[in-house]
Specification:
Two copies of one chain form a homodimer. With 280 residues, chain A is α/β, with parallel strands linked by helices. Chain A has a single domain (3-279), classed as Carbamate kinase (3-Layer(aba) Sandwich), CATH 3.40.1160. Helices cover 34% and strands 21% of the residues of chain A. Chain A is built from nine helices and 14 strands. In chain A, the strands form four sheets. In chain A, strands 5-8-2-1-11-13-14-12 form an eight-stranded mixed sheet, with helices on both faces. In chain A, strands 3-4 form a two-stranded antiparallel sheet. In chain A, a hairpin with a 2-residue loop joins strand 3 and strand 4. Chain A is globular. Chain A starts with 19 loop residues before the first strand and ends with a strand. At the A-B interface, helix 3, helix 4, strand 5 and helix 5 of A face helix 3, helix 4, strand 5 and helix 5 of B.
């Protein structure tokens, strides 16, 4: 991280502004797939004193298990197709194995976790994606008008920590597969009405990089003006642009701030210093 | 069911006595393994207006999936041995596939279900069974002193319906396999302090039978005196005796009444008439 770029934000553990602070944190395969990195992340996560929600992806476990069961991973334009065998597979792996092992590990760290999918307490109803050029299968687009985030609030108020698997349901008895990044931003926006939400995306880089080749060239703060300038200068690599766009979408919809970076750095530091990229 | 034996009990849908009524219902493989029977059961279950909790077993799905994955089902003295591969398997199948599909189906029936294991919200902590003559592996004996049933109460008070998979955790990060009957009776007893609990075991018979060969010879009421008499007369088949003993154990520990019978009959009738065997 570039030393001259450090900025101050509210302490991770102190109330922010007038509202009650809530951390909505998304982790993916790079954290989940390795026991040591998951354990290290959960240890940091458990220590966050503020209210918090964890959204986890599935990692490679579903693909590995699918291979053993002869369930082929199908992709069209880089997006997974969720057929009947695959929705059962991800319901088992994301909603069962990954989710419950995270919960058990957090319980051991004195974090009273409760593992859920979008079907549970009807938190995240969705609509099966309509078939146009591509039939994505059992994939759900969140129906934000029907989300029952008051049930998440109930749990948070009781001191519980929801751990959410990237699964939704169609309200007709069918589980659906939904992108974990989307679930994180959708929940962050919905809860932004009640809490000062910091949305945190953990990924494999230390943050948004000024120079793709230099892992330490982290840009610590991206404002709208800064973003326009970075785009104009063509400094950003392609993969990061949708993430930043999503971050600004979330902010425009009421999320207080979005932090992007490496899980190892993002939670370790509970002082007033930001590691990673803060977008606000 | 023997017509001359019908008895009156409180309506399934009206408050019972001074306390608030709570149904704790356990279903096993005979309900879960067939789509039509599960759907029929859930339809009846969703219509119960009283507070309710469902505990489900795993059925044959875990064994079938285990076979595909080359995970051998090992039994000693009729009890499953839960090795490392098996605890992952049942965490996936019980905690994921079975649990979440029940939740999604109940949501479609306007029952706001929330699927949990004993690790979630630390509802059912357990102790890994000590190795004596047999090493049962990752099997948990419930630690009743540490159960957080107040978290179930929180959910019930908010109008949510907990759906519990037969899994617990050891408080050290490890999921454990626990018998679903045991989870049902343990929860019923713990919640018996707060609610008037009717504990219902759904099994493959219509109830306790006066004559094993006659499926319609259901004994509708078993009191302690009646039970002693049935034992003296050697009327009961061996398999049912532990179930009745467990029922009386639950009653002695504060459960209001226990009902044993076929899922098809037990919930369908929401009048004042009992199908199956009532033990009190």
């Amino acid at each position: 991280m570039s030393e001259n770029n450090k900025i101050e934000v509210d302490s991770l553990n102190s109330p922010l502004g007038v509202g009650v602070k809530l951390f909505v944190i998304k982790i993916g395969g790079n954290v989940i797939d390795e026991d040591a990195s998951l354990q290290a992340f959960l240890k940091d996560f458990a220590q966050i004193k503020a209210a918090k929600i964890l959204i986890h992806g599935g990692g490679k476990i579903a693909t590995k298990l699918g291979d053993k069961l002869g369930i082929e991973s199908k992709y069209v334009n880089g997006r997974r197709i969720t057929d009947e065998a695959t929705i059962d597979l991800v319901t088992m792996v994301y909603g069962g194995l990954v989710n419950k092992n995270i919960v058990a590990k957090l319980q051991a760290l004195n974090c009273n976790a409760i593992g859920l999918t979008g079907a549970d307490a009807n938190i995240i109803p969705a609509i099966k994606r309509p078939v146009k050029e591509i039939d994505y299968g059992f994939v759900g687009d969140v129906d934000t008008s029907k989300m029952q985030v008051d049930n998440l609030q109930l749990l948070l108020s009781a001191g519980l920590t929801p751990i959410i698997a990237p699964l939704t349901h169609d309200g007709k008895g069918q589980m659906l597969n939904t992108n974990a990044d989307t679930i994180a931003s959708t929940l962050a926006v919905a809860l932004g009405k009640k809490y000062d939400v910091r949305l945190i995306y953990c990924f494999e880089k230390k943050g948004v990089l000024e120079s793709v080749e230099d892992d330490n060239s982290v840009i610590n703060l991206i404002t709208k003006d800064k973003y326009q300038q970075l785009l104009a200068d063509k400094k950003l690599f392609d993969g990061i642009i949708p993430k930043i766009d999503n971050a600004f979408d979330a902010i425009n919809a009421g999320v207080k701030e979005v932090l992007i970076g490496d899980a190892k750095d993002l939670l370790k530091n509970v002082t007033d210093e930001v590691n990673g990229t803060l977008i606000k």
